[in-house]
Specification:
binds 2'-deoxycytidine-5'-monophosphate; globular; 49% helix; Rossmann fold; alpha/beta
């Protein structure tokens, strides 16, 4: 059955410019914006605050089974009714979310929640597996890439601007990105990969404005065909 509105899937590794671009494009189109990375992050931080170790599959499974997650109109993210928005952008959340997102039972629950949110349509959903697993029938699929070096520089600047982890060097951040890329692409459950029908955009040499313009072009082109 056709949805009431289109689903746009934007995938790629961390630091490829996905989040900022997806948020701005969603605002321009009047679509909802869903950051699925924020869901993995908030889930991981919530589990850790419950005292659950990322390696303790049995306890984590029980926590995962009925966990509820939602976004409000301001883009705040809630886990079981609690607001996690301001606790998910730390290097610890980077690591924990990367660890728990390798687990099939975690992905199964979060994918279920993501489909429930996206099913209404008129949504830009951003992540790693949106075009391949969550919405393989998305109306538009875009895959953003950038060199590891440039992604580490962007993340370093972002942390400085937000005054988070001031002591972290650029080399340390690059190592973290390499490690997460490895886990994202090598995991057996829904590894990061481009859907065959996704439009590839390399953002290494592009400003955010340029990426945004290209993404808008692709979406406008495809949505003309959307009925
Ligand atoms: O995009 P991000 O860095 O905020 O994502 C945080 C972690 O969640 C990252 O290690 C990859 C994982 N993730 C995932 O496995 N699938 C998604 N759809 C989104 C994020």
């Amino acid at each position: 059955m056709r949805r009431k509105g289109p689903v746009v899937a934007i995938d790629g590794p961390s630091g490829s410019g996905k989040s900022t671009v997806s948020r701005n494009v969603a605002r321009k189109l009047g679509f909802r914006y869903v950051d699925t990375g924020a869901m993995y992050r908030a889930f991981a931080v919530a589990a850790s605050e419950e005292g659950i170790e990322a390696e303790d599959d049995e306890t984590l499974k029980r926590f995962t089974e009925n966990v509820e997650m939602s976004f409000d109109d301001n883009g705040h993210i809630y886990v079981d009714g609690r607001d996690y928005t301001h606790r998910i952008r730390t290097p610890l959340a980077d690591r924990l979310s990367s660890l728990v997102s390798t687990k099939g039972f975690v992905r199964e629950r979060l994918v279920f929640l993501q489909r429930r949110i996206g099913e209404e349509g008129c949504v830009i959903m951003e992540g790693r597996d949106i075009g391949t697993v969550v919405f393989p029938d998305a109306d538009v699929k875009i895959f953003l890439v950038a060199s590891q070096k440039v992604r580490a520089e962007r993340r370093y600047r972002e942390l400085k601007e937000k005054k988070i982890a001031q002591g972290a060097s650029q080399e340390y951040i690059l190592k973290g990105i390499e490690e997460r890329d490895r886990r994202d692409t090598e995991r057996s459950h829904s590894p990061l990969r481009r859907a065959e029908d996704a439009v590839l955009i390399d953002t290494t040499e592009l400003s955010l404005e340029e990426v945004e313009r290209k993404v808008m072009e692709v979406i406008r082109g495809r949505l003309k065909e959307w009925k």
